[in-house]
Amino acid sequence: MQSGIKNFPQKWLRSKEERPSWHYGGERGKPRDGGKQEGRLLGQSRLLLTVQGLVAAANALSGTFVNVYLWKAKQDFSLIGWFTLINHVAMALTFWLAGKWVKEHNKMNCLRAGVAVSALFYLLVLWFGASAVNYYVLLGVIQGMSAGFFWLAFNVVYFEVTDPGNRDRFNGWAGLLGSGAGMIAPWISGFLIVHLKQTNGYRVIFTISLIVFVIGVIFSFFLKKRKSEGNYEWMLTVRCLRQKETMWRTVSLGLIAQGFREGVFGFMIALLVYVHTGNEMKLGNFSLVTSAVSLVSFMIAGRLLKPRYRKAAMLIGAVMIVLVIVPFFWKVNFMTLLIFGIGVGLFFPLYSIPMTSSVFDLIGGNADSVQHREEYIVMRELALNVGRISGTAVFIVVVAFTSAPQAMNWLLLGIGSTPLAAWFFMRKVASAKQAKAAGGA
Fold first, then answer.
1. Between 20 and 30 A from 109 (CA), which of 193, 207, 284, 296?
2. Which of 191, 180, 186, 241 is nearest to 383 (CA)?
């Protein structure tokens, strides 16, 4: 390990200046240059972004096409909905149970476990081949576990290596990397699937994802081991939400509303593109164009968004990502789906960056919530997954009765309008000062 560290960029291996401060998380204290580094992302932040970028690339290569792969085996919206629902339930349970591991033991091993279990997921898909659809319950559980392990550890480390001064920038870069991966990787996957025999094409992209996840595990070893302290409080979420004066009641409702949309739109749009085109290359082109727009938007929003603009930016973003659903009522085809994708790519960063930054600033609002950062991050993820599970359950119930185009349009509009509810609940904590004052239970 030491030989590898010697050759690694030294600016990514800082330690003293990257210790979390007591009140806000983040890389220690004030910049030594008198404030000139405000907003900068230092070594561990950049390395964490690298690991996140590799995971995003691996998921973008194959994740976009997993639901298509299952759909081609059995053209059933309900089955895709159940696969997604099982995924979210497994993710929520993993967050809650793994909280003890992250709090009291080695959070970096939890992060690596998430990447490794993701690799296992694609290994099993390769192993099952065309019969993978028969194992959708097992695959949903494994994919949910991988996401739970990775994102719990990632979010705790993210809190510790950022602060209110650079959190929006970190989220902007994270979105930019995700958009870059979403732009290039699905196009490559679509190209390979179309130009190879389809079965071979899927095997190739699943294998490449497996390799990228392994590389992600290797990079994670350059993230320094972070100190564990305190005992995990299993029922903090219940204790916190019972308190009448806590801001977390309102925030949890906002997060549930955010997750409600994510649960369905996370799989449905890509699937609709394939259903209406019947061509993986078209899906790759869709991802290329929409993610290119998202990449530019995340780059600009990450640089320009300041805490004082969060409330207005979140409202604009929420309104616009609802309005772009309206063209579906004329006709659902590749063009209207592309209009939707471009609109979401353009305005989603205005909504998502303030949502994420505001919640993590709230966690850093006082000493008690910082001490219990793992539990509050678990509470955040549980709220998101309650929303995802609820949204997906509504989807399953509706498609069990009808999959008529107009019914599906109204379903998407209803579910897709929940960002407005998220803004309503989050508007009071959409600034750094309010979040700081309200933090903690």
1. 207
2. 241
Q: What's the confidence (pLDDT) of residue 3? A: 36
pTM: 0.82
Q: What is the reported pLDDT for 197?
A: 73
> What is the structure's pLDDT at 183?
85
Residue 430: per-residue pLDDT = 66
Closest CA to 40 of 227, 172, 219: 172
Separation between Cα atoms, residue 346 and residue 298, nearest integer Å: 8
The pLDDT, as a whole number, for residue 198 is 63
**Mean pLDDT in runs of 10 for the chain (441 residues)?**
36 38 42 41 77 88 86 89 95 93 88 90 87 92 94 87 77 83 88 81 88 87 76 87 85 95 92 91 92 88 83 94 95 94 94 88 82 90 95 95 90 96 87 46 43
Per-residue b/e over 356-393, b at no fewer than 16 CB within 10 Å? bbbbbbbbbbbeebbebbbbbbbbbbbbbbbbbbbbbb
The pLDDT, as a whole number, for residue 59 is 87
The residue among 255, 55, 227, 237 whose CA lies nearest residue 157 is 227
Measured CA to CA in angstroms, residue 411 lies from 171, 327, 396, 424 at distances of: 30, 14, 11, 21
Map out the domains of the chain with their CATH numbers: 42-219+234-438 (1.20.1250.20)
C-beta atoms surrounding 355 within 10 Å: 25
Task: Of 406, 261, 418, 396, give the one whose Cα is nearest residue 328.
Answer: 406
Q: In the prediction, which pLDDT does 417 show?
A: 96
